[in-house]
Design goal:
heterotrimer, A mainly alpha, B mainly alpha, C mainly alpha, A: mainly alpha, Helix Hairpins, B: mainly alpha, two-stranded antiparallel sheet, 7 helices, 3% strand, globular
Chain lengths: 103, 178, 500
């Protein structure tokens, strides 16, 4: 019987992997991918809790998840715009080399 | 094992496995395409959970939009003559320790070693879960909620999208218009 | 299930109490339309449009009826005295920053209409954030503020520093808010509802030990988002780089408005969502928040102040100074009492005036001299006496010298801690304030006493900027005369919505 804990474990694994990606990757696009993993893991949580909850507000989780998808899309668009512009100016997408700002 | 369990494990392994590839692969292209499988896996899990509208949204927006954008990002930011697309990592050990530690903290089932028992947070906490409602198509209810309780966030997100549109176009536009 | 669509009557009734936000939305759309005409006068028109709408929205806020606390839009936002206080504060901050956009050398030559649109959008988002009553609304508003800020920071798209700052900001911000979202999703799972009062109700009715542990970790995760927005340690790392790379008016705005909104929502979340009885100002005694908050506050203050000691770039110096001030404001949260909350609100009010003043002076000096380096500030007393005197007042206010408004802020916060918290914490705060006095004084000394730059011409201030400086100076000096009114206002505003 697949219960809430199964889904929680999947989402926790996704969250931790996303966090690992964010902490270890140098390429900005890779960090963005890690961020998307984190957001997806939270969404799985929301939908899973929504499913296993039969109160009057059970659909809240799914609604919240839809908004997260919208926000993720907006965030990625702006992030990539910045990465692209920075790349045009500096020719590298690596974070370590974005060191003009220091201190 | 019930059919539901089989399907769940297939999607779960797909999702977590491809996520691992996203994070650990050396080549950016491998990461990007694994992300595709991750999103598919998540959509599958949504379907298992009865969230049909959300699964469709996930595929349309994440795979059809965000992933395509990320692929553009990957393609446009490497040296054109260099197809290697290597992505370097740093500080792998501390990162892995933190991530693994967090994972154990969260999901470890009850373990007893001698007198010492440890239980991950997810198992210790009381979640507001009950038997769960009958699975039914969700689109209608989501639509009504958008026009009802979630009307304000719904409208506010349109402002968000407007700002993102203006912002992304503004940042990427080459010429400084007078 | 109650999932009917909202009736038109209900929507109109809600809108009648939502006028400030609607005015800002309308202005935003108008600004975008005017910008699309590509006429040569569109920047000027949009500037006036933005200014007028901000003033209009602020005026409408004062007319909001908060006699009876209520929720709007079916529980998504709250309309209570605290919300009104923060709305006025946030709109005021946007308005005060507006004039800096015209006199910024960094932004010269760029089309400003889009910046005005962004300013209106971020103000609107701040209003939603400060009044959010539901975690979905909270997260959406938080991300709206963040994403708009990311764009504002990267506005100088031809400039490498601006884009670097924007990149660091967005990546750090997205991770912090992503972690926060994960915590929020777990909180939803624990309580079955996204409504903050609903969460409070569920948690106050008794939780087991295991749940308490989980709640603590969840709160830490959620704090990642709040910490990022208010630049509290250890989520402050983006702050100096982003503040330095962004156009100075944007930096000034970021140092004040999103921070205030962040504190507003943090206050509402911790005191209303996680309190024993809603709005009783007692953080849940079952979970010991104080140690965590004290550690964060001490770290924030100390890191900010110590790092500022060696800075020569004015923007970075003010960035670290802002971080430190967030630490002082957190003291109000630590006090976990009505006086603590009031202290935080008074401090925020004072902080808006003094920080914006300091940034305005820095912007104007850069406009005339083209430098942010403190080492090129000597001799300003001769060349720009008014500016230097104004800066002196702003810096003294930041130091917390009476009778300036900054002193009032510190007084209230320290008093709240002495009254209800550990005394050693207040001592740490005082020591920090003393350390801070050193670098503020150093700036003053450089401007007034140091010799140099004799060959540079005097600084001539255009009338609008002249007036603005006077306004901000007055804002720092005069409040003491009207102190009973201001105090009354903050006390009246202290009522927080408690209910479903």
């Amino acid at each position: 019987m697949i219960g809430i804990h199964h889904y929680l474990t999947v989402s926790a694994a996704l969250f931790c992997l996303g966090l690992l990606g964010v902490l270890t990757r140098r390429n900005a696009v890779n960090v963005l991918m890690g961020i998307e993993l984190i957001l997806n893991s939270a969404n799985i949580n929301l939908v899973a809790f929504s499913r296993f909850n039969d109160t009057a507000r059970a659909m809240d989780g799914q609604l919240f998840a839809v908004f997260v998808v919208v926000i993720a899309a907006a965030e990625v668009a702006v992030a990539l715009a910045i990465v692209l512009t920075l790349y045009r100016l500096k020719r590298t997408p690596n974070l370590d080399e974005a060191t003009t700002l220091k201190g | 094992m019930t059919p539901e369990a089989v399907v769940f494990y297939i999607f779960a392994v797909l999702t977590v496995g491809s996520a691992a590839v996203v994070v650990l692969a050396r080549s950016l292209i491998y990461s990007a395409f694994s992300l595709l499988f991750t999103f598919f896996g998540v959509a599958g899990l949504y379907l298992l959970l009865g969230a049909d509208f959300l699964a469709a949204t996930q595929l349309l927006v994440y795979v059809g939009g965000i992933l395509v954008l990320l692929l553009f990002g990957v393609m446009l930011t490497h040296k054109l003559y260099d197809l290697d697309l290597r992505s370097e990592t740093h500080q792998r050990i501390p990162g892995a320790v933190i991530a693994a530690g967090l994972l154990i903290l969260l999901v470890c089932p009850r373990l007893s070693i001698g007198r010492f028992t440890f239980e991950g947070l997810f198992h210790r906490a009381d979640w507001a879960v009950k038997a769960g409602h009958v699975l039914a198509p969700t689109t209608r209810e989501i639509g009504q909620l958008f026009m009802g309780r979630f009307l304000l966030p719904f409208e506010a997100s349109s402002i968000l999208l407007l700002v993102a549109l203006i912002g992304a176009a503004l940042i990427v536009r080459r010429r400084k218009d007078a | 299930m109650n999932s009917d669509a909202m009736t038109l009557d209900a929507a109109l009734a809600n809108s009648a109490r939502f006028l400030p936000e609607l005015v800002l939305t309308g202005a935003l759309l108008l600004v975008v339309l005017v910008d699309a005409t590509r006429a040569r006068w569109r920047d000027a028109v949009n500037f006036s449009l933005t200014a007028a709408s901000l003033l209009g929205a602020a005026f409408l806020c004062t007319r909001l009826d908060v006699a009876s606390d209520r929720t709007l839009w079916e529980g998504m936002v709250v309309l209570d005295p605290i919300a009104r206080f923060f709305k006025i504060l946030l709109i005021g901050a946007s308005f005060l920053v507006l004039v800096m956009f015209r006199r910024s050398r960094e932004l010269a030559g760029l089309v400003m209409s889009e910046m005005y649109a962004l300013l209106l959008a971020v103000t609107l988002s701040n209003l939603l954030l400060a009044a959010a009553n539901d975690i979905a609304m909270l997260y959406l508003a938080l991300e709206m503020v963040s994403i708009t800020s990311y764009v504002m920071v990267s506005y100088m798209k031809g400039d490498r520093l601006s884009n670097e700052a924007g990149l660091k900001y967005i990546l750090f911000g997205a991770v912090s808010t992503g972690v926060m979202l994960y915590g929020l999703s777990l909180l939803y799972g624990m309580t079955g509802t996204t409504s903050i009062p609903g969460i409070q109700e569920h948690l106050a009715s008794g939780i087991s030990d295991g749940t308490r542990w989980a709640l603590y970790v969840i709160a830490l995760l959620i704090f990642a988002g709040f910490g990022f927005k208010t630049a509290a340690a250890p989520f402050h790392f983006w702050c100096p780089d982003v503040y330095q790379g962004a156009p100075t008016p944007v930096t000034a705005f970021l140092s004040v408005a999103p921070k205030a909104a962040g504190f507003a929502v943090m206050m509402r979340f911790f005191f209303s969502g996680l309190a024993t009885e809603a709005a009783q100002w007692d953080l849940m005694p079952t979970i010991n928040w104080q140690p965590m908050l004290i550690i964060v506050s001490v770290l924030t203050m100390t890191i900010g102040n110590i790092a500022a000691l060696t800075q020569t770039n004015m923007k970075r110096l003010l960035a670290y100074s802002s971080i430190a001030h967030a630490g002082y404001m957190l003291m109000g949260v630590v006090a976990a009492s009505k006086n603590g909350a009031r202290g935080m609100m008074v401090y925020l009010l004072a902080y808006v005036f003094m920080n914006l003043g300091a940034f305005l002076v820095v912007t104007l000096i850069h406009y005339h001299d083209g430098t942010f380096d403190l080492r090129e500030y000597p001799g300003l007393y001769r060349r720009a006496p008014l500016l230097t005197v104004a800066m002196a007042i702003f810096l003294l206010s930041l130091m917390g010298i009476p009778p300036l408004v900054g002193f009032m802020g510190k007084l209230y916060v320290f008093a709240a801690i002495v009254e209800s918290g550990p005394i050693w914490f207040a001592v740490v705060g005082a020591v920090n304030a003393a350390i801070a006095a050193y670098y503020y004084a150093r700036v003053l000394k450089t401007m007034i006493i140091d010799a140099g730059n004799e060959d540079k011409p005097p600084v001539a201030l255009p009338p609008l900027e002249y007036a603005w400086i006077v306004v901000l100076v007055a804002a720092n000096v005069l409040p003491l005369l009207f102190w009973s009114q201001i105090e009354g206002w903050t006390i009246d505003s202290l009522r927080m919505y408690a209910g479903r």
